[in-house]
Specification:
mainly beta; 5-stranded antiparallel beta sheet; 3-stranded antiparallel beta sheet; 12 strands; globular
């Protein structure tokens, strides 16, 4: 069976495309400058620390619109000193994924922060939209290092009038989304 250059036939007879199209106009055959409009690599040593900082914490942006042309997500790193805790909050319609690199994270969530789970190195945490939650560095002695990815670039945070299950103490967990 003959195939054109961009269509493959699956066993079920459906067609699949074997090359990518620019996101602006699907199915156009205009030349795309893939060098400048393709994959971006942001080396770990080149993250942007030019974000709001809080004593005891280090934040850095890896992927956003300005650095990589991202339109629908934000990604970066957060290092949280021992014993840092946020107050109760949610992030509106944003979805969040937290990947634990080093240390131990404790998450509390629910209407009264009644649910709790912990995560360690190699674990992922998913926080759905509008879920009341509290993030906690579960260690009183070791830092918590995470990679954070959000489904949008706006720093949405809605602080809630819920008594924290574990009252914030020492350094509050503040990043580009968790502001004072």
């Amino acid at each position: 069976m003959a195939q054109d250059h961009d269509t493959a036939h699956r066993h079920d007879g459906a067609h699949t495309h074997d090359h990518a199209h620019p996101h602006a106009e699907p199915h156009t055959h205009a030349a795309v400058d893939w060098k400048n409009n393709g994959v971006k690599v942001v080396p770990g040593h080149a993250l942007d620390p030019n974000t709001a900082q809080t004593p005891g914490m280090s934040r850095a942006t890896a992927i956003n619109h300005a650095r990589a042309g991202a339109e629908k997500l934000w990604a970066g790193t957060v290092t949280i000193h021992a014993n840092a805790k946020t107050g109760a909050h949610h992030h509106g319609a944003l979805e969040s994924v937290i990947f634990i690199v080093k240390g131990r994270a404790r998450m509390r969530w629910g209407e009264r922060l009644e649910y709790v789970a912990e995560a360690g190195p190699g674990d992922f945490i998913y926080v759905p939209p509008y879920v009341p939650h509290q993030e906690i560095n579960a260690s009183a002695a070791e830092p918590l290092e995470c990679v954070l990815v959000r489904s949008g670039q706006e720093p949405v945070v809605v602080n809630l009038d819920i008594a924290p299950a574990e009252p914030p103490e020492e350094v509050r967990w503040i990043d580009p989304i968790h502001r004072n």
